[in-house]
Amino acid sequence: MQDLLDCLGQSFTSKNNRGLGVGCLKTQNIVILTKWLWRLSLGERALWSETIKSIHNLTNKLKVTQSKKFLPSVWNNISKVLESYGNEVIKLHDIFSIHVGNGNSTMFWIDIWLGRATLQDKFPSLFSLESNKNCPLADRCPPGGTSWSLTSKLSGLRTIVELVILTSLVADVHLNNNPNKLHFFISIDGQF
Hints:
With 192 residues, this protein is mainly alpha-helical. The chain contains nine helices and two strands.
């Protein structure tokens, strides 16, 4: 981590102050690779994006560094580099968030759209009962209330408490006709 901080410091230091004056290649590489994640996460319907999503089974907007390791591919190489830097640099959910629109392209349980963690992580007992773990947000938050699709009846205090808390959290979610968008926290306009 200290190497990265030193590298970041040199990237902004001029030659007159013993800096490189050209920036840190490691930092520039991370930014460029993160830009690929951003573009993939925007939900573009471009052929390259659809191909990568299909081959690597990518559904979570902020976990797009997953890949099928056994397949030799450019995306696999990008994923490896970002994963190796991931813990020491940034976590994508710390700089990106999903702004909910119509809820069709945001997965209710597995995308980070409400807070800083997935709902499957926040409500594991309830998630274990979900019949469609990849359901879109629009299916669980239709106009007029929430809609659950559980495999069995609720049992256990923890599961009931999770349902009450989650229902109250999503009660304020109001979907609209706009597509969901990814927001970049560091930029004023939210674009990367």
